[in-house]
Amino acid sequence: MKRTILIAITVMALVFGLVAYAVALDASTAVNANVNTILELTAPPSVSLGSLDPDVDSSNTVALSGKSNKAATLSASVNVGNFTALGCDLEVAQSGLRGGAISVTDNVTGMVDWNVDGGTALAGTITYTLAQ
Fold first, then answer.
1. Residue 26: inside a domain, yes or no?
2. Domain range holding 56?
3. Which of 93, 95, 92 is nearest to 72 (CA)?
4. Distance, CA of 82 to CA of 119 (rounded, Å)
């Protein structure tokens, strides 16, 4: 009797073991994606330096914002227009910028000399570039 029970248990273990083995299968799926390049820059359309006296610097700040998912460099190029002098801090580029909330404040300074007529409307341009 003991021998019959042992044989029955052994047979059941083999049957259920084979069934369980046959049901358990593995399959894998490769997951692929490409990361989009994000590069955005926002600058105000204009900034005022107010009323200028000859040979006296006037300055104001420009708030810049952007996004970059790679290390980026922010720089500026200045066209003085009819200012005697016009410049900004970002003429020296700022590098290592990265993230979804880049925020940089630039200081813009302008001046006229005594050869510029009083009442002259002044205009120059600063072009900001964010490059990856």
1. no
2. 39-131
3. 95
4. 13
Confidence of residue 23 (pLDDT cuts 50, 70, 90): confident
pTM here is 0.76
Q: Domain count of the chain? A: 1
Q: Is the dihedral of CA 42, 131, 76, 94 positive or negative?
A: positive
Tell whether 111 is covered by a domain: yes
Task: Check residue 45 and report its DSSP letter.
Answer: S
What is the Cα–Cα distance from 82 to 86, expressed in whole angstroms? 9
Report if residue 15 sits inside a domain: no
Integer Cα distance of 9 and 70 in angstroms: 64
pLDDT in tens, 35-88: 999 999 999 999 999 999 999 999 999 999 999 999 999 999 999 999 999 999
- How many Å apart are CA 33 and CA 37, to the nearest integer? 13
Report how far residue 101's alpha carbon sits from residue 103's, in angstroms, rounded to the nearest whole number: 6
Q: Which of 42, 116, 124 is nearest to 81 (CA)?
A: 124
